[in-house]
Design a protein that fits this description.
mainly alpha, single chain, 81% helix
Length: 507
């Protein structure tokens, strides 16, 4: 096979048998690394949000929010689900991955061209001429993204989370720094454009340095049909899911303008930001691990429920606290000009609460190769989402937030019910797993709201927020302890976290 890149030892990136010998240890180490990286990214994101919210106007964020819908949708085509197919497939070879690489790159270039040509239409749709140049500038990110899809997949397949973590943190650091400097010197909304482009370019360079695999020319008969089918179903789900999830931004931007969309976009971002910091690292570890256990049902179930317990015990209390202290959190992070975000923020909380565990549905579909069912569920859920958004937009951003947030519990129950059908997983076991973290989180939030209303001392906002955090933590752990079997389960979670911390310190 003729090579177009320097020859390297590619075979080490394809075999995964060696991972099963120490799957638990690799999972713990991988979790430690990715959580540390995610914590760093969270600090960078929150820091940039706090600083940029004071240097830029809500309208600046609204303009980027309008383009983000188009860019985000088009970005689905750079992957086509083929990165997950590379991770999930039991056996792959160099010719298959090379062919997938060129498919990803070709589609990414074509997508960039289509989006560039359609940029005037984007500006016309929103009635905002500035969107033309913003859209054109962001199209280059597709090309850099297409170059990294298979390299990142191979690193994840080998559970090489150290390299991935370093790349993500460095890329985001450079992007945030570029945005802040630009905003400081009056760059306005271009500061947010610069941040996204800097992250894309730095990430591409870092991934190619970390992963020494180099593609050869594509092979016509490389037996990738099953992987293309897998990727096609996953992409189909991502498309319908993206459309329904982002229709809220389109409707608000179209009917209510950039300022309301700026409020909504910031509220949505802040609601999901802490959850992403938990879900992303655990998913990056759980998906390859569950994929390697797909032929061992008992081990698969044990691993899955432990991952769900960990993700819910960490994520649910954060959402409970944010709901109880929404006004203080918004005032602290964004300032008084953003207080209009508070009711939107609170209405989105049920969606964030469900998002702490909703990621577990994707784990099952993708690790077991059942993405055809994921696509069917996505179509039904998307149609219902569209109906809720169209109804809610009559009342502006608050109406959309209420329609989306309050409907999520129903979606979650239906989603898990359909997902578990035909698998060894059971809803009753899931309910047992989730009861303690959910009850403790909701109970602590209700108690804290009551305490704040009874004991309003007019303290400084920062001091009041710190006191609320301490009270909420005591209430949360207190409820865990008094519930039957709660103390034992809590100690089990703390042991997992302790193991993660010890592994991180050794790295």
């Amino acid at each position: 096979m003729k090579k177009i890149f320097p020859k390297v030892n590619n075979q080490k990136y394809f075999c995964t048998d060696h991972l099963k010998k120490d799957l638990k240890g690799r999972s713990v180490r991988g979790g430690a690394i990715t959580i540390a990286a995610q914590a760093s990214k969270f600090i960078l994101q929150m820091g940039s949000t706090v600083i940029l919210a004071r240097l830029l106007a809500p309208e600046d964020f609204g303009l980027i929010g309008m383009v983000a819908v188009v860019i985000g949708f088009a970005g689905l085509f750079k992957d086509l689900g083929l990165s997950t197919a590379t991770i999930q497939k039991a056996q792959i070879d160099h010719e298959q991955v090379s062919t997938l690489f060129w498919i990803n790159f070709a589609i990414s270039c074509a997508t960039a061209l289509v989006v560039a040509v359609s940029s005037p239409f984007v500006a016309w749709f929103y009635g905002e001429p500035r969107l033309t140049w913003i859209t054109l500038a962001l199209t280059s990110s597709f090309i850099f993204g297409g170059l990294t899809v298979q390299h990142q997949a191979l690193l994840r397949r080998q559970m090489n989370f150290t390299s991935l973590a370093k790349i993500e943190v460095i890329s985001m650091s450079i992007g945030v720094l570029g945005a802040i400097v630009s905003a400081w010197y009056g760059g306005g909304y271009w500061a947010l454009v610069i941040m996204q482009l800097a992250i894309a370019v730095t990430n591409a360079i870092g991934v190619w340095i970390a992963c020494k695999w180099r593609p050869s020319l594509p092979v016509q008969n490389s037996n990738i049909r099953s992987m293309l089918a897998f990727g096609g179903n996953l992409t189909g789900f991502n498309i319908v899911n993206f459309f329904s999830r982002n229709l809220d931004n389109v409707l608000i931007g179209q009917y209510w303008g950039a300022q309301q969309l700026g409020f909504y976009a910031q509220a949505y971002k802040l609601v999901l930001l802490p959850i992403v910091q938990i879900n992303t690292p655990i998913t990056s570890v759980a998906l390859p691990a569950l994929s390697s256990l797909q032929a061992e049902p008992q081990k698969y179930c044990r691993y899955y429920y432990k991952a769900i317990l960990l993700i819910s015990a960490l994520g649910m209390p954060i959402i409970g606290f944010l709901f109880a202290c929404a006004d203080k959190v918004i005032l602290m992070l964004l300032g008084e000009q953003w207080l209009g975000v508070v009711p939107i923020f609170q209405f989105l909380m049920p969606a964030a609460f469900n998002a702490t565990i909703g990621v577990g549905i994707g784990w099952v579909y993708q690790s077991l190769g059942r993405v055809d069912r994921q696509l069917r569920w996505g179509v039904v859920a998307s149609i219902l989402n569209i109906i809720f958004f169209v109804i809610g937009v009559r009342w502006g951003a608050i109406g959309v937030a209420a329609a989306y947030g309050l409907s999520r519990p129903l979606f979650l129950v239906a989603g898990f019910t359909y997902c578990y059908k035909g698998t060894p997983l059971r809803l009753t076991e899931l309910a047992k797993t989730l009861f303690l973290p959910a009850f403790a989180s909701i109970g602590a939030a209700i108690a804290l709201i009551g305490i704040d209303r009874l004991l309003a001392f007019g303290l400084n906002n920062a001091i009041a927020l710190v006191i609320d955090l301490i009270l909420y933590s005591l209430l949360y752990f207190g409820i865990w302890i008094v519930i039957p079997n709660g103390k034992h389960t809590l100690l089990e979670i703390l042991q997992i976290i302790k193991a993660l911390k010890q592994k991180r310190e050794k790295i």
